[in-house]
Amino acid sequence: MSVRVAAVQYRPDFADARSNSLRVVEEIGALAGQGVQLAVFPEAAVTGYCFESEKEARRAALSLESPEITEIGRSASNLAMWVIVGFAEKFQGSLFNSAALFGPEGLVGVYRKTHLPCLGLDRFVAPGNALPVFDTPAGKIGILICFDIRFPEASRTLALAGAEIICLPTNWPDTAQLASDVLCRARAIENHVYVIASNRVGTENGFEFIGRSKIISPDGEVVAALDSRESGVVIADIEPAMASNKRVVRREGQYEMDLFEARRPDLYA
């Protein structure tokens, strides 16, 4: 089954959840009109990212019950889409860098960033402690956020749990071009999964962001990309079931690779 997917690239308004949620809802409506079934928005797309103190981050943070977040969920539900959107989340007294997945039936789940750099919001949040895979009609979806892509174990864990698509809301600043151009393709190739990376653009509190959002096939090919630092959307039709077959056949009986069966976990401890 073919699924039309999109990565949305734009500049959020810092600490203005109302403005950003309206932008996300507007984009969801436009994408639905183009037949998109799964849309990925940037890291911290609703709240902004470059906070300078924990107090400032907590003031801007939202819960899953906040009207700005529920409005996005309602829009996804009304348009029968799956939508992944990032935000600074307050949950049970803690602060997280999170991404919520919404679908036609409402909230599917939330992923909380597990690997934290010393940068922006991540200086003030607690790490998440789970790498869930969400089984949806649009495919088996795993979510990572930005810095998580630098750790091959995270992507491999999702792939071993059945993920066909790894969605990556991200805030790549100027020095992170290799994360976009090399690491995302590597994670797709080594796990034979799709990778959908959505990065922001513009500047925020002294940091400039590079865009370079892209959709990558299980063979590591970039099937759609934005190479500029301008707002835009990349759209592609993918076949999630392709990612379930880890046996790559280049020449039958002469050049074949089984990417998971050939693993040697006994050597990896």
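^ that was protein a. below is b, sequence first then the tokens
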Amino acid sequence: MTEYIPSTTEWVRDQVELYEKSNGQEGYELRGLPVIIVTHRGRRTGAIRKTPLMRVKHHNTYVLVASMGGAPKNPVWYYNLIESEKVELRDRDHVFMAKIRLVNNAEERAQVWAAAVEAYPPYEDYQDRTTRCIPIFIAEPILDE
């Protein structure tokens, strides 16, 4: 069994623990808006990592925004996802596998970015704070697993 290594960031660790311990009945919101938990593998350690992200739905997919609050660099989980083909998502009590891909197409990016900003308006400010183009992943639920 692969080891789970909780985040070194206290609020992230606490959010994940509360969310999972209550099966999504508590810890489902951050700043008054819904979040999901993304479970992925560390690219160096192979350990299981869990990251709470704002819940952004676009059609039948989830949008994973690597904003890091508009910091000048990408969050660590971004690099883990770059090297992955799928992740586990938890949306309250619904847990499922999802195929992921980085959005590179400008037209598609504009559409999913609009959905992200609608779900969580501060993303627009985050993009204004940084010179990097904030990466976005699409996570498409895998129905046969």
